[in-house]
Amino acid sequence: MNPTIETILNHVSVRSFTNQALTDDQIKQLVTAAQAASSASFQQAYTIIGVTDLELKMKIADLAGGQKFIAEGGHFFVFCADVHRHKRIAEELNTDLSDTIEGIDAVLVGAIDATLAAQNLVLAAESMGLGVCYIGGVRDGIVGIAELLHIPEYVAPVFGVVVGYPNERNDIKPRLPFEAIYHENHYNMDTDDVIKQYDEETRIYYSSRAGTKQNKVWSESAVRSLARHPRTFMKDFLTGKGWARR
Fold first, then answer.
1. For labeling, which of 142, 182, 195, 229 is most exposed (least CB within 10 Å)?
2. Start-to-end C-alpha separation, the chain
3. Could you report the per-residue pLDDT of 15-34, keeping only the tens digit for each?
4. pLDDT by residue (tens digit) across 176-192?
């Protein structure tokens, strides 16, 4: 155990913040930490948009599922997959990148680069005593949010991250057991009993945690979340922005 691992293991999502804004120095520290993340072939195929305008944050909060706390945190970052700059450079170099950047793998490269950068930023923020929450709801309102942020071709918002000073923190959620996540040498299909045991653990967590208590288990919650957010419009959005055409 060391301070880095302790920070990782103490992660919780924070959804209640004070109105204290982050300083310019803090924002630069966080983005610099994000940039230190690994990147596929050093493409650095992502962009981070910091949203500071309150009215704009409120509009994004509404489009992202009515999550009002997005506008209340110290800062809101939108992480985007981005090969727009690569396309512009390629045009200057008279190089045709259409087979690459219009393929599905370009979406993966950009989304993975953005995710690695975001996790660095999140860990840096938590090491500074700040609270964080990922906002996947950005993809629920991706069409409207892309318009608000003036997103060009070959750029796609992947998720947001709220960072700020916590009013309160949730209890740490129990994760899936090691045996459910880590499979050795081949995929293990025989994890049903592990999931059932984990459901009982999460039932206890949700029914006894501080704040809102609920009668639910992980498996039902996970399936309902997938059913609730099909995001069937994503293919059309990506194709309209130049991605996933091949």
1. 182
2. 46
3. 999 999 999 999 999 999 99
4. 999 999 999 999 999 99
Per-residue pLDDT tens digits for 118-142: 999 999 999 999 999 999 999 999 9
Answer whether 129's CB lies under 8 Å from 29's CB.
no
Domains identified in the chain and CATH numbers:
3-170 (3.40.109.10), 173-236+241-245 (no CATH)
Nearest CA to 75 out of 35, 113, 24 is that of 24
Residue type, 129: G
The pair of structure tokens assigned to 140 is: 């629920």
Q: What is the 3-state secondary structure (H, E, C) of the chain?
A: CCHHHHHHHCCCECCCECCCCCCHHHHHHHHHHHHCCCCHHHCCCEEEEEECCHHHHHHHHHHCCCCHHHHCCCEEEEEEEECHHHHHHHHHCCCCCHHHHCCHHHHHHHHHHHHHHHHHHHHHHHHCCCEEEEEHHHHCCHHHHHHHCCCCCCEEEEEEEEEECECCCCCCCCCCCHHHHCCCCCCCCCCHHHHHHHHHHHHHHHHHCCCCCCCCCHHHHHHHHHHHCCCCCHHHHHHHCCCCCC
